[in-house]
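My main concern about presentation is that the manuscript never shows what a single data entry looks like. Each protein is reduced to its one-letter sequence and a matching series of backbone shape codes. For the editor and my fellow referees, an illustration may be useful. For illustration, here is how one protein appears when written out as sequence plus structure tokens:
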Amino acid sequence: MPADPKERARALSTRSNMLLPGLLAWVGTVGAPAFERGVGVGPRVAACAALVAMVVGPFLTEARPWVGRAVGIHATVVLCLVTWLSLGANIGVQHLEPVRAAIGAVAWVLFAFGWGATRAPGTPEDDPRAIPGAPLPARSRLPTAAAPIFAVGLIGAALTLFAAWRVSRPSHALLSHAAAAVAAIALVTSAAKIAVDRQDYKPLTPPTARIGAAVRPLSVLAIALIVRFAWMLVE
């Protein structure tokens, strides 16, 4: 442990960022289904092993960072996956509680952020090994209307996530939220790329060439769909 009280407080804060979200995620998505009635010994052993790896990992990062990350991240996630696979139908959509599942999803995101490396306070120029010099000028400026374009994409992503909550059937709600998350990420990423690269965009190949290159794969896909549809009619 560091002798300086500030360093000890910082180390405790870092470990808390790793542990607390992970424990919340484990309780809601791993421990609760693993310790329900009728569950066998295998899932419970895997869940307990995942908890031990999750708790031990942060304390190994000080002496051996790569060992701590291997235990706290990789071993924990693998053991959680083993638990879920061994539970089988016990973690089906019909058994999910929406509130607990939502809290668990958020906790897993915070667990990932907690293990992310953060830069030390200060600026890179404060490092004694930094070479002094004049500030580097920006390579270019944002194109006109870049901010409104990105704002439109961000609003569209928010509306997509909001629309997923309109699905009332439990069996379809989980799929709708997953699809909404993927669509929101795609919208934000596309809006950022369009907003930044709009001025310097030059297609490498003409649209007709791209369409011509996709004719064969699309034809194979169409034939496969027709065969599958015909097979369904025969059955």
